[in-house]
Structures are given as C-alpha cells and as structure tokens.
Design a protein that fits this description.
Helix content: 40-55%
Number of helices: 5
Shape: elongated
Strand order of the largest sheet: 1-3-2-4
Distance between the termini: 31 Å
Length: 152
C-alpha cells in the first residue's frame, strides 16, 4: 500500500463535508477512486484506492479566534485484490478486511499529520474510518459483483 497526503481544491469541500457528515452523495463511486488516484500510483487491475477525507480547521493561535480557514485534506491507500478469488466468501471477506485496515491506517496517518490537539474537525462528528471504509466498500461491492458475473 502506498500513501501520499493530498490537499484538495476548495471546490470539493461541499462533497467532502457531506461525506464526513455521513451522507451518501451521487457520484460517490467516482470519488472513491477519483481525486486521489491522480495523486498516488495509478491503481492497476486488481486494486482499489481507499481515500480518507478530513475536513478541519487549525485551532492554534489567534487565527482560530478569528475563524481560521477550513482545510480539506485526504490520504489514499491502494488495496490489492489481485491475489483473491472474489467469487468465494473467503476472498470477499479478505478483500473487505483489507479495505477496513487500509481505512484505519489512512485515518491514523491523517490524525498523526493533523492532530486533534491542534486541529478541530468540521463537523466535529466526522468519523474518518467509517466514512472511508463505507465509500470504498461501495466500490468493492461493484468489483465483487463484476467478478461473480464473470464466472456465470
């Protein structure tokens, strides 16, 4: 797995804020592999890019009191499933486990780079691992369905 921090354009703020709030948005399939794929190694056949979004505001210093700007950051991890048989429950379970671990790892790295003692989440109810895994599992579901359809 390869990770690289990425600062997204402000125009993506609304989409990420909705995702961070737990809302499902149209085009979430494209987002799960979209913006961060360009900043990381391009996914190959048999891989999925898991993107951990984080919307935050720096709370250090006087800028916080005056309303510091909101930043949108993300970190991407590539999860391989090339070695898995997605037509079996064992293969599917392993693929989902890899996605969950990648989501946790990406969120842990974001927390290390943007610690909550220095940054405040916007909204405060963001749950990085859940948001990240949920979006990646939507794409995984399509990949699994395609693998199963290919064996019929």
């Amino acid at each position: 797995m390869h990770a690289k921090p990425l600062r997204l354009k402000p125009g993506l703020f609304a989409m990420l804020a909705a995702m961070a709030g737990g809302l499902t948005i149209p085009g979430s399939l494209a987002f799960a592999q979209g913006p961060a794929a360009a900043a990381t190694d391009q996914p190959t056949a048999g891989s999925l890019t898991v993107v951990a979004p984080r919307v935050l505001r720096n709370k250090a210093g006087p800028a916080w009191a005056q309303g510091a700007p909101i930043e949108v950051v993300s970190l991407a991890k590539t999860v391989s499933f090339a070695d898995l048989d997605l037509t079996t429950s064992v293969g599917v379970d392993e693929f989902k486990k890899r996605i969950m671990y990648a989501a946790l790892d990406a969120c842990d790295q974001l927390e290390a780079q943007y610690p909550s003692n220095r940054y405040v989440l916007v909204p405060a109810t963001q749950n990085c691992p859940d948001t990240t895994a949920t979006q990646a599992l939507i794409v995984a579901k399509e990949i699994i369905a395609a693998a199963r359809a290919g064996t019929k």
